[in-house]
Here is the input.
Amino acid sequence: MHFPVLPHRPGKAVALVAAVLGCAIGSGISVAQPYTSQPIKIIVPYTPGTGNDILARTIGQRITERWKTPVVVENRPGASGNIGTAAVARAAPDGLTLLVAPNNFVINPYVFKNAQYDPFKDFEPVALLGWGRLLLVANPATRFTNAHDLIEAAKAQPGRITYASPGAGTPHHVSMELFKVVTGIDLLHIPYKGSAGAVTDVIAGNVNVMFMPIHVALPYVKDGRLLVLGLGSAKRSANAPDIPTLAEQGIKGAEVDIWYALFAPSGTSKEIVRRLHQTVNEILDGPETKGLLAKQGLEVETVSIEAFKSLMERDSVRWGQVARSAKLTAD
Here is the structure.
């Protein structure tokens, strides 16, 4: 930035330079400054170790380092994310209570009769954080080698092949329901109260198949305890470039990537949202953070708040149609 050459009148010169610097800060040229010295709480409405939890703890630690403000991550699982999400919806809009949630944030109101929150009225979108990729996997006893083996077996035995999920309305659940819709098959849903039980039972052979986060599935695929049938993404993953997508196997319309995002309660000031958005994007764009999250199977993406709002709206329409087509309901 070029400052004007001023005559030697110190008082006016200092005032003008201060004004120009003030404009620079206001335009977002400088690093966002903290809006509070009080502790910030990030609620994760799922169990530890999930993509939401990894992102919340990674971002929280770096906000603390930058702002010298304590950030505490609190896991509040239950009802497929509804309990923790509703708690943030009721929190004071002061920037001290935030939410990290996946895309079923916009799906649950279609699935649950009483989700206790409206994703568009009760929250301020702060930042898109990144994406998680889902692998369609099977227990080795099934002897499936690709997605078509599953489809063929399911058509021969409607409703007999089982699939696991961490609960009704979770991305794993609605992803399989979308897969059922586009392939015309019938599978039996076995819901669990969290990811650990679902993953354990697929590995043990108590359940046949599951859509599983790539960072969770790959170690079990590599040691032979799970078979991989396909990747539910539009393109192959950098973490597993040899695994074909479902689309490459001729199964169109089954893209089931999970986005993760940061939210604040509705009514949070635009200034607080702006400072959070800028700081979080700067953290995520750092090569160290990107590399760390990539090792966990999470792909960073930063966009404007407006672009993220558009993504939310598109996904709400898309998954609402899936919920109605599959007649998804949960108490």
User: Anything to note?
Assistant: Residues 1-30 have pLDDT under 50 and may be disordered. The longest strand covers residues 123-132. DSSP finds eleven helices and eleven strands in the chain.
